[in-house]
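FORM 7B: Structural annotation worksheet

SECTION A. Query
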Amino acid sequence: MNKLTEDIYTLAIESSCDDTAAAVFCNNKILANVVANQDIHAQYGGVVPELASREHQKNILPVVHEAIEKANIERKDIHLIAYTKGPGLLGSLLVGTSFAKSMALALQVPSIGVNHMRGHILSLFIKDDDERDTPTYPFICMTVSGGHTQILLVSSPLDIKILGETRDDAAGEAFDKAAKVMGLPYPGGPIIDKYAKSGDPQRFPFPHPNIPNYDFSFSGLKTAFLYFIRDEVKFNANFIEENIEDICASYQQKIVDILIAKLRRAAKEYDVECVAIVGGVSANSGLRKSLHTMCEKLRKKPFYAPLEYCTDNAAMIGITGYLLHQEGVTSDMSTTASARLTLDD
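SECTION B. Predicted structure
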């Protein structure tokens, strides 16, 4: 097969945490994207690793079957299988990697183990609408999720340099922990965003951490929020209920301000044309609005993935697998899952 002249059909599998997902691509155009959520974790206020891996074992076969069916292709049409090799929950990753490598072996097609974080970044290049624009290299990208907060210089699918990252908690965790303190259900980030839309972001002041270079720290902000709620509830047991919109708006605005300040600095220093945000927290409406405002002032082009590709999904793994395949990258059967994986691995 000549990869330059023939269409390449890629099957992608993502199982790094609690969602079992499969997607099918024809080159860089997505044909199907299927996600099976695991509602079982909601009662525990977070993901339980052992339960997650068991659910993946139940879901992976029907999810892959549905993706292939929705793409209107047959298994024999698949040229490439991409899968998440890490980072993530080891038990969950093992389910996906084992299934993907076994299927690649059975179909006698190449496979590519994809770094989950690289997948988030390259989700910007998914084509499901011929009119959608994509960033030009090099560009500045900020990955914001429950486990990661990084600023990166992206020069190609293979050349991604970390400029800065969180020293402790990620922005997504700061959202979820604040929601838990207020008694909101898990995951809390989207719920805080919902309340924040009706609130006053200047009502309650929160500290802005002074972290050098492009690094982040959210542990101090998280602790300050905990003490703030504790002290206010002492005087008024109904404080949270009576002020929920303003609390969420103020806390969210502080997180957004911290993120945008670093992003603005990087965009200026590296003088790129495009600035992007990816990851689960990139779905936050306040962050997207601030990105647009920043880019208008700096005369940059803002980019972020469609909402359905912000949280964990197989589409981002599929586009990354395809782009890496075009760069001549493949994985062999000795490739293993890794819970801790950096972009350099």
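SECTION C. Observations
The first helix runs from residue 49 to 70. The domain at 139-305 is CATH 3.30.420.40 (Nucleotidyltransferase; domain 5).

SECTION D. Sign-off
Analyst initials: ____
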